[in-house]
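Q: Could you fold this chain for me?
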Amino acid sequence: MGEDYGQLSRVLVSFDAVLLGAVVEGLQEIPTQGDRCRCPINPLVHRPTLRHDSVTMRFSAAAQVLLADQWVADRAEEGDRIAALLRPVAAPFARSASATFAGFGAPTELLDALPRIQQQLEQQHPPPMQAAQPTADALTVVFRAIPDLPGVIGLDGAQRLLLAEMGAAIGRLVYGVDALEDLADDQRAGAFNPCLVDGKVEPSRLAACLEMIEDAFTNIQGAIAQLPWQRNQELLENVLVQRQRMKAQAARETIDVPQPTWWETLMAVLLQMWVLVRGAAGDSPDDGEGDDIGRRRKRKRQKKKTRDRGSSGAVDGDGCGCCFEVACCDCDLCSRARDRDCCDIDL
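A: Sure. Below is the predicted structure, expressed as C-alpha cells.
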C-alpha cells in the first residue's frame, strides 16, 4: 500500500486486506517471494513481508483502499463531517486502486455503489440477512475475480462457485459479528442495527443474526476443506472460523435480551390455562378416532331420547326418526347406515 498509494495509506491496513492476501496467496501455484519493509511505527525495525509488486500484494492492497474508501463514504453519508472532508483527499488513491482492480478483471461498479445501496437498504430497517446482503455481494465480486488472477492454480467450475460462495459467507459473517459487537453502541446512538427494533433488542432478530453467523461458519468450513489450497489453509481456518467464533461468542455474552414483563407472563399463563380448560370441556375439536367416538356418543343420546318419546318418521338426510342424522358423513358408521336400516346398527 505504501508503494502504490503513498506511505500515509499504510494506516488503513486492516484484517480485511491481510485476509484477502492470505486467500490469494493460498491459491498461488508458486509461492510469492519474500521481502522486508520498514515498520511504519518504528522505522528502525524491518518486518518480513512479500514482494510489493506481486499479484497477492497488489490485489489485496487495491481491495483494501477501495474498501476503506467505501467505509469513509458510508460515514460521510451518515453525516460524519471528518469523513466528508477526507473523501475528496482520498479520491485519487481510490481511482488508482479501482484501475488496478479493473486491470485484474474485477468489476468495481458494485463496490463503488456499495455505500449508497447499504444506506438505502438500512432506511428500510431490514432484518440481519437482508442487511448483510450488500456486503456479501461485494465480497462475492472480489472472490469471483481470484481464479483469473495471474499465477493462481486452475480451478474448475464447481471450485470457482465454491470460492464465490465463500466470499459471500465471509461477507455475512463479518457483517453479523460487527452487528453483535456494535449493538450496544448503536442502541445508545440510535443508529441502525439489524438486531434492533424501535431502539430495543428484538429476540427474533438476534436469533436470526446468530443463525446467519452459524450458517456462514458452515459454508466457510466447507469451502476451506474442499478448495485446493497450496498453503495458508490452517491459517484461514484459524482466522475465519476459530477466532471469529470466539469474537461472536464474546459479543453475544454482552447482549442483554429483554425478558417478558410480569403482565406478558401472566397473560401467557392465563391463555394456556384457558386452552387446557376448553380442551377438557370438549370444546376443542378432536380429529381421527376422537371425532368418531364423539359422534357415536351423540347418536346414542339422540336414539334414547327418541325412543323415550315413542316418535318415529324420517328426518334430515338418510337418517330416520330413531337415530336421527346417523348417515350425516362419510365415516364407517354412516356408510353402513346407507346400506341397511340404520336402526339395526349397534350404536
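A (continued): Confidence is low (pLDDT under 50) at residues 284-290, 309-326.
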